[in-house]
Amino acid sequence: xxxxxxxxxxxxxxxxxxxxxxxxxxxxxxxxxxxxxxxxxxxxxxxxxxxxxxxxxxxxxxxxxxxxxxxxxxxxxxxxxxxxxxxxxxxxxxxxxxxxxxxxxxxxxxxxxxxxxxxxxxxxxxxxxxxxxxxxxxxxxxxxxxxxxxxxxxxxxxxxxxxxxxxxxxxxxxxxxxxxxxxxxxxxxxxxxxxxxxxxxxxxxxxxxxxxxxxxxxxxxxxxxxxxxxxxxxxxxxxxxxxxxxxxxxxxxxxxxxxxxxxxxxxxxxxxxxxxxxxxxxxxxxxxxxxxxxxxxxxxxxxxxxxxxxxxxxxxxxxxxxxxxxxxxxxxxxxxxxxxxxxxxxxxxxxxxxxxxxxxxxxxxxxxxxxxxxxxxxxxxxxxxxxxxxxxxxxxxxxxxxxxxxxxxxxxxxxxxxxxxxxxxxxxxxxxxxxxxxxxxxxxxxxxxxxxxxxxxxxxxxxxxxxxxxxxxxxxxxxxxxxxxxxxxxxxxxxxxxxxxxxxxxxxxxxxxxxxxxx
Length: 519
Fold this sequence. Notes:
Residues 182-266 form the Squalene cyclase C-terminal domain. The chain crosses the membrane at residues 58-80. By secondary structure, the chain is mainly α. Among the domains are: 165-196 and 381-519, no CATH class; 228-366, no CATH class. The protein has 14 helices and 4 strands. The strands form 2 sheets. The protein has a two-stranded antiparallel sheet. Helix 2 crosses helix 13 (492-508) and helix 9 runs parallel beside helix 11. The longest helix has 64 residues, at 21-84. The protein is elongated and about 135 Å long. The model is unreliable at 1-18, 78-146 and 168-179 (pLDDT under 50).
């Protein structure tokens, strides 16, 4: 019989204590149902809260979306407009700030190498002086309503100074010349005041010993300006009422001139007055030579002209405050005076390489406001258009174009002339509106055209200038630089009473200072 296996007794639940299988299933089902119901309840509440929040947020989201769309559109428009036109730094034509010795780092446009043209004598009787040469710069693209760009064709200057040698009784252009209160009397009073300011050694000073002198230091510039006003009236060292004063001024410039031809009286390089002053002194010598045919003046005049030629950017064609290398950027304000000096050199029968004028025309192409807008000009090729400078730069650019052969009826010339004489640019002797620098170029440009634009402009401007002249006291005949304070680009605050007086006299002399180019 098998041996019994003894197993320890264990406590076992009674059948009644154990849940039955069906009961357990029902309990699990109820628990799942309750859990699912709770989950659905939570989800439904979350959706209600989410939808409610979304409904409340819709107006705000719409406003935010609209705001951001407007901001994005505005920024896009600003970026587009800034690529077209922004405000440029002020023209600093008469400041004494010294430039760095390094050339300016501004980018330069890619331009083909200039055409090399043999040296040609600008003799008054030389047919070569009227030869036509195509400019080396590419002609700008023009709209259909604009004419093809004219070729380089230097104007005839053989009789440009003839009116100075004649009786100057109609300086105001109205036939009333010698009567009281007209331009002629104002010119005479202005010249008398200018002569009184001359130093004993023959020089004039912008910051001299007289009321409201300027702060700019350049005796070359002051002397040259004074001589231009005297020569503009036909006063020379051989003929006229101020022979001694003109002779002493010319002699002082001769003694100041350096071996390289530079007339500037300060050795420090980079002063902004440098090439203004040198160009003005060169003009004075060339005009004196052309008016008198005194060959003793030819040497200094030719050296002054050659220094200008040597200082031109030989790739881009402009002039600036120092002799320029190929990477130096010129400006139209300085370039205009340099071109006027070379234009005056032709009057004195001084040889100028025609390539110098071709390069200058290339520079003028680069300072058009846009390649397709040759009627309007800006200060520098690498600067954006500057509204306050538009009048002076356009007048100066168009005058340069006239010297280089643009016809009178060339459409951009006509468009530019209308701009110079429109209502917005009408001269006013008021604070921040007087701008004799711009009027000086406007007068010459319109006078060359000789149409109704010139007549309207001068008949309006002459009485303004005459009325602004000091009528009594030690400063009788001069103009006050601060009453009113002119536009910033006029520069009378810095250049002072002598500068403003000379500029006003030069404007009044316009009818006979140069004969109209298109006669």
